[in-house]
Amino acid sequence: MKTILVTGGAGYIGSHTVLALGERGYDVVTLDNLSAGHRWAVRHGELVELDLLDREGLDRLFAARRFDAVVHFAAHIQVPESVERPLMYYVNNVGGTLNLLAAMVRHGPRYLIYSSSAAVYGIPEVIPVAEDAPLRPINPYGHTKAMVERILRDMARAGEIDYIALRYFNVAGADPGGRLGEGKEWAPHLITVAVRAAAGRRAGMTVFGTDYPTPDGTGVRDYIHVSDLAEAHVLALEHLLATGESGVFNCGYGRGYSVLEVLDAVREVTGVDFPVEYAGRRAGDPPALVADSRLIRERLGWQPRLDDLRLIVETAWRWELP
């Protein structure tokens, strides 16, 4: 049985991936400082409460345990916050990753699955955007992800690690079995915010930007179900362990929906009309981001099972209901 260290595994995407790895028969150790994650979300294996900025703690963990690979989620993730507090994002997202990589080089293992983001593309010239598009992030969060990707490329060329970076588009939904979902009260994701407004857990919600160059003026995004994304991590891990081939893959469905289309889907699924306010654009938000996901389907054999906007909303809605 292979032992996998999952950083940030008590968070939203990380916990779904820990669940998928555990169901696949892996021995999972979750590392999380619990600043945004939850103990209850770790459904398999052991939880180690530790911050990636604690270099001595990382050394002790890696010296005491033998890991076959690392799946790295731990990061700050809010684009507007990154614009307001860029130093915090560089220290945590880049500095924490450097500490993790240094511990891996000192102790092993050499295999890493990295949680990257479509934010590395900024405002793409071509939609859908493929992996070979220029990286032109427009916010500090995106810059941290692109910076770590560059570090990983350099280390792979030097023979220090092998890695796969998965560039997520907009992650949403909850475990179809009802075991897991978004646990953060401040969760920024549109579908989570909308279903919480429908459930009465919020007074309403705000749409930021109605003058984008899109069909209805609101931002367009590619929404991927969190369980399909967890499966992509398992496939990436198995590919890396079997071949040692580094690479980068988009994780999205290849179809975009506007904010207003998502809100219509939430109203349809929940049967609830909720208050919506409209405001100006937020700094750091691109007009549209849609994935060209052919590469991950062809190379890793990824076959999404939950590629339906209303199904994504339904799973999120069931999770939010009392």
Automatic annotation (TrEMBL):
Keyword Protein biosynthesis: no
Entry's Gene Ontology BP terms: galactose catabolic process via UDP-galactose, Leloir pathway
Residues in NAD-dependent epimerase/dehydratase domain copies: 4-252
Cofactor(s) this protein requires: NAD(+)
Pathway, per record: Carbohydrate metabolism; galactose metabolism
GO molecular function ontology, one term from the record: UDP-glucose 4-epimerase activity
Top-rank taxon: Bacteria
EC annotation from Swiss-Prot or TrEMBL: 5.1.3.2
Keywords linked to the UniProt accession: Carbohydrate metabolism, Galactose metabolism, Isomerase, NAD
Reactions this protein catalyses: UDP-alpha-D-glucose = UDP-alpha-D-galactose
Assembly behavior: Homodimer.
Family: Belongs to the NAD(P)-dependent epimerase/dehydratase family.
NCBIfam families cross-referenced by the UniProt entry: galE
Protein name: UDP-glucose 4-epimerase
Organism: Desulforudis audaxviator (strain MP104C)
